[in-house]
Design brief:
- The protein has 745 residues and is α+β, with helices and mostly antiparallel strands.
- 30% of the residues lie in helices and 28% in strands.
- It is elongated, with a radius of gyration of 35 Å.
Length: 745
Amino acid sequence: MKQTFEMEFAGRTLKVESGEIAKQADGSALVRFGETVVLATACCADEPKEGDFFPLTVNYEEKSYAVGKIPGSFLRREGRSGEHATLSARLIDRPIRPLFADGFRNEVQIVATVMSCDQDNTPEMTGMFGASLALCISDIPFDGPVAGVYVGRVDGKLIIDPTIEENAKSDIHLAVAGTDSAIMMVEAGACEVPEEEMLDAIMFGHEAIKELCAFQKKIIAEIGRAKKHVDLYAPDPAVKEDIYGRIHDRMVKAISIFDKLERQDAVDALKKEILDDYDGREYENEKEHFKFMLMVNDILEGMVAEEVRRLIIEDKVRPDGRKVDEIRPLDCQVDLLPRAHGSAMFTRGQTQVIGTTTLGPLSDKQIIDNLTGETERRFMHHYNFPPYSVGEIGRMGAPGRREIGHGKLGERALSYVLPSEEEFPYTIRCVADVVESNGSSSQASICANCMSLMAAGVPLKGVVSGIAMGLITNDPSRSPDKETNHYTILTDIQGLEDHFGDMDFKCAGTAKGITALQMDIKIHGVTREVLSEALAQANKARTEIREAIEAVIPAPREEVSKYAPKMVTFHIDPEKIRDVIGQGGKVINGIIAECNQVKIDVEESGSVTIYHTDKEMILKAKAIIDDIVREAKVGEIFEGTVTRVEDYGAFVNLFGDTDGLCHVSRLDWKYIENANDVVKVGDTLKVVVIGLEMGKVKVSHREFLDKPEGYVERPERPAGDRKGGNGGHGRDNRGGHGGNRGNRH
């Protein structure tokens, strides 16, 4: 039976329908937020899956019909998830995953299908709300509800779920999710906003989240099903005691080794000792053998985790011996790659990233096809994490969810300091290749590509540096606080601390403030106190890194690389665009061919940008276009070449394809019967423009001759009143004014 629930939220109606659609799913909810409609479903396997992790999958499905579009693919149907759908799925996954119990191994799949999309009413957060509710009203064990909102700030005023128009004016673009008691996830971009102001925005969002969680609890109380019993995975205590008794002390020593690879080799040797022992024992069957070996490996992993956490919490000692707020050794270099337009390498400890910047014409913008309304992108930041960066053998190919997410984080962090398209009319692509990794490679990619952008001559508004912070608590089952659950915040976390810690908090920005934030946690939320402390500690680290960058390249270079396309931008009358393009692109293609394949972008506004590595070719193309769009003005003087002579006058080329008629009466002060008597084709004639009539230019030469005394003006003989007369004022090849008014050629 269909049941409906409503509330007013952020000035709009939030409506939930359940019991009518997707009834065979374990839990489902159709959520309407304004004109956005998302169907969220949750399904759980009856039996646990073999493995040492929780198999949760979140799918965010964008249907083209949701915005009245037919897919642009060859098959005209939706294909693999695009970047936005992938990022939205991660956005939903991150606050939900920590709310499943430790040891839960039953496979869970959440599907959020966007069936109607109004970008003024966020489909992503509607999907998160629906996913949480589908889990909560089902019989799947889940410690929710959870909800999320977007937060913007316009003219100093914080706004929940801003519209597209409000977003365009906002200096904060924040996504925050959590339960009614704590914050679970933060994803943000900002125009160099101070830490305290960003923290206020996060807490403002959390107040709205409390409303959404209360609404969900009301629905759960009415239609929620009792949670089914699921046996949680736990290792055999006897086996755990045996393993701990045999190698615990040696494992403690191994974990304290400074070098990552040496430490890993020592830990792996101890693991192998135990695994080989249990692998050689007798088992009932192969399945029992497999399950037992997974358990042994899990016990060994748990031993490493416990010791890493204990050392940090109790002894304040990190695996590599650093202080809790200490950054690993830094090294910054630029100009590694001579042919790249900009290149740099950033090294922090055993994490190393090579960043490159490539500049291209505006016509190289990325074409976007999703439900967001964004059609093209001028700045791209791509992140690659090859298996060799961690000394492994693995798949190489299309980027996975993690690579897409890290690339987008870097793109967000750097986008706020880029010059506008008008200031710097280039398409910009940055690539971060991780060549060595031991934690926080996403922030290293931001630092590397900030340097590569400056080396490429991109006039950045500030130097961006990034750092990853960590959190270790006494009791991961509870939110950390000073009174009952002590915690330690770590600066510049490495691989072990990230893997076994409770929080990964990434922060990037300039000296003025934050440009990007991302927080993921494995516990049941963090408080304002923890976030404030982490932001303050991150600010200190970012300053240290920024100083290291500025010591190598203190400011963007004045000129772009000699291998980068140079450019000139100017404006023409939009009515003249068709003259520049020509019928079927004939004119502009002729310019491109004549000027050694220059790249010309013509916008509908009349903005023209010409690109080429050779500045002379750019100037040549500009001169041709200037001549095409130029209009003669009365009083202008030209040294022109005679292109045609009729008895009634001579046609003189002024510029480009523009000719002016010098009537026979204007060739001299004295009477001339036939213009052919005084000029011939190829002569140079100095003339002044004396009139413009219906696009035709009249010029005169006699003003540059001595005027006879007592001169009397004779009436001008009409052009064409003698045999062979022709009143035309332009060359035949001037005529092509029709054709396509295109933007890019």
